[in-house]
Amino acid sequence: MQKALDEMSKTFAQGVSYKVALDTTEFVRASIDEVVHTLIEAVILVVLVVFIFLQNVRATIIPVLAVFVSIFGTFAGLLALGFSINLVSGLLKTTYSSGPDLLSRFNNFPAAKITGDAAPGYSSGQALAAMEAVAKEALPPGYAYGWSGEAFEAKKSGNTTAIVFVFGIVMVFLILAAQYESWSLPLSILSAVPFGLFGALVAILLRGLSNDVYFQIGMVTLIGLAAKNAILIVEFAVLKQKEGLSHADAAVEAAKLRLRPIVMTSLAFILGAVPLFIASGAGSNARHSIGTGIIGGMIAATTLALLFVPLFSYLIGTGVDKWARRKGAPAAATQAEPAAGEPS
Question: Tell me, what DSSP letter sits at residue 100?
Answer without folding.
Answer: P
